[in-house]
Amino acid sequence: MLSNMISFRLPFVVLQLSFVTFFLAFPARLKALDTGSTLPTTPVESLCNTTSNASFCMSILSRYPASSPTTNLQNLTAFVVDLALLDVNSTYLASQSLLHENDAPTNDKSTLQDCLEQMSDCQDGLKQSIRRLRHLDGHDPPLTVSGQVMDVRVWLSASLTYMETCWDELADPRAALLKTLLRGAAQNKVEPLLSMALSFSERLQQPGATSIVYAFSTDHDHHRHRL
């Protein structure tokens, strides 16, 4: 059953290429940040300390493009959501590959089809969140900004729910092999990233949060250059 892993490995080759494309293109997609010469900066560590897992947060932000010594919260949030979307895309491709295995059991195919629908909805929500974050203008009226960030929080929360529903499907004993191949590989990546993005977006909704300039420490910045 599902013994042919050649087609299953294909999505991970695609994922590797996606990561290369992502890190080459992401700096160009960042909204220009005018820090000026008088604006104070806030250490990015202080932002991570507001999350439930500061060390995980710092490890994720160590991947942030080193060409950006300072940034804002909307850019950081979009970056984290981008990473989550990459993992969801990878899982989606792996699921599609397994779905077309000729020896895949009917129960597995039914579970996979349900998961594919959930993941597709999740992808839509993450893409909407990224678009909204990249066009977020801190100079807009506070109520406008707050409403736009609330949209992001709703989309992110819904996306997390979609993925959790998929994981619940895979928790069925009849889908034990699928759980091994998909759930363990993706759940530990997607859920922490979405939780981190939700934490950032909750903070982003606070008055004045869009204008805060975050800076990477010297040690952290050096680590980013080495990645």
Descriptive report:
The chain has 227 residues and is mainly alpha-helical. It has one domain: Butyryl-CoA Dehydrogenase, subunit A, domain 3 (Up-down Bundle). It contains eight helices and three strands. The protein has helices at residues 6-29, 44-48, 54-61, 73-99, 106-134, 142-170, 176-204, 218-226, and strands at 41-43, 70-71, 213-215. The protein has a three-stranded mixed sheet with strand order 1-3-2. α1 (6-29) packs antiparallel against α4 (73-99) and α4 packs antiparallel against α7. The chain is elongated, with a radius of gyration of 19 Å. The relative contact order is 0.18.
Query: pLDDT average, as an integer?
Result: 80
Strand content bin: under 5%
Write down the Rg: 19 Å
Q: How many domains, as an integer?
A: 1
Helical proportion, percent range: over 70%
Question: The CATH topology is what?
Answer: Butyryl-CoA Dehydrogenase, subunit A, domain 3
CATH hierarchy, class: Mainly Alpha
CATH homologous superfamily descriptor: Invertase/pectin methylesterase inhibitor family protein
User: What structural category do the secondary elements indicate?
Assistant: mainly alpha
Low-confidence regions: 1-17
Which architecture would the CATH scheme give at its second level? Up-down Bundle
Number of E-type strands: 3
Kindly report the spatial arrangement of strands forming the biggest sheet: 1-3-2
Distance between the termini: 39 Å
Largest sheet: 3 strands, mixed
Overall body shape: elongated
**Helical element count?**
8
Order of helices and strands: HEHHEHHHHEH
GO molecular function: enzyme inhibitor activity
Organism: Ceratopteris richardii
Protein name: Pectinesterase inhibitor domain-containing protein
InterPro entries: Invertase/methylesterase_inhib (IPR035513), Pectinesterase_inhib_dom (IPR006501), PME_Inhibitor (IPR051955)
